[in-house]
Amino acid sequence: MREMFELIAPCHFGLEAVLKREILDLGYEISGVEDGRVAFLGDAEAIAIANVFLRSAERILLKVGAVHAETFDELFERVKALEWERYLPIDAKFWVTKATSVKSKLFSPSDIQSIVKKAIVERLKDVYGVSWFEESGASYPLRIFLMKDEAVIGLDTTGESLHKRGYRKLTAKAPISETLAAALIQLTPWKKDRILVDPFCGSGTFPIEAALMAANIAPGMNRSFLAEKWDKLIPRKTWYNAVEEAQDLIDLSVQTDIQGYDIDGEVVKAARENARLAGVEQLIHFQQRPVSELSHSRKYGFIITNPPYGERIEERESLPALYREIGQAFARLDSWSEYVITSYDEAEKYIGKKAERNRKIYNGMIKTYFYQFPGPRPPKRDTGR
Predict the structure, then answer these.
(1) Could you please report the per-residue DSSP string of 306-372?
(2) Of 25, 82, 162, 375, which has the most beta carbons under 10 Å away?
């Protein structure tokens, strides 16, 4: 009988539905959805599969337990009562890397972190019959979420966030994260046989994430994860199997029309290099070109883009003119669908049309909006049947 766990996948606020669909597509059962988190049930194999295959998750946490705590004494005793020996071997190096508290009586992250660490140490001292831990083995960082006095405690199986795919060595200013780009593409009806253009491609994240999807390349297959060293919980072969499965699914023969433009030639060069590192350079056409020259001979394409927000005051002055140019380009491509993520609150005014939908999404600490202007659907092809 395989040992089952509850796993927690944090994501960007506002994109829980995308991640939930991805998890269901992998064949796992959802156990809960909260702001910025989706929980699901799975075995050791699921930990490897989720880390390698999920595009919109930030990391995968193995839930150790949930406790109610209104005082530090309660937190200590209830954390100590959890079965830490099930997860942590005697040489484990463990620490609380992050504690967040919302609407709870315990709100000091540093105090929560030290009390939880102390509770685990006391538990393991009793279980292993030692008075000192060398912590010379594998790393087991912990994360704690306190919400209305309920503390959920999870072990971080991932390590460096899942947005670190390993391909983005060169970044433009204000880059969009890989996980956010992947989630936003999945929010649109774009499919690999449709045109996709990003006129503000920066370091190439939207085109590269789209190309990874088109070629069925798992986003985490070329990086390592902390839990690869957790031999007590996850056999090393489990990770090899997940990567092998990912390799079997790749299809680089796929025909695509994915394009990335930027006004800055050096940025375009960086995007091209990132695409090469991601193994998808042959699937994307990058070019130095301003948005004012955006055009395409074919109909029913998609624009998915992250134009400048004007985070600095001197840049804000140029935004009305820039967003007017964006609107003029959209008008020329009147059969296309356009999707724009920006924190600029007058985007619709200067683009010159109202979005059919707009979704509030937090990009780090910046509140942004994902403006959605879906175009007409292409006519159904006559298959001759």
Answers:
(1) ------SHHHHTTHHHHHHHHHHHHHHTTTSEEEEEE--TTHHHHHTS--SEEEEEEETTEEEEEEE
(2) 162
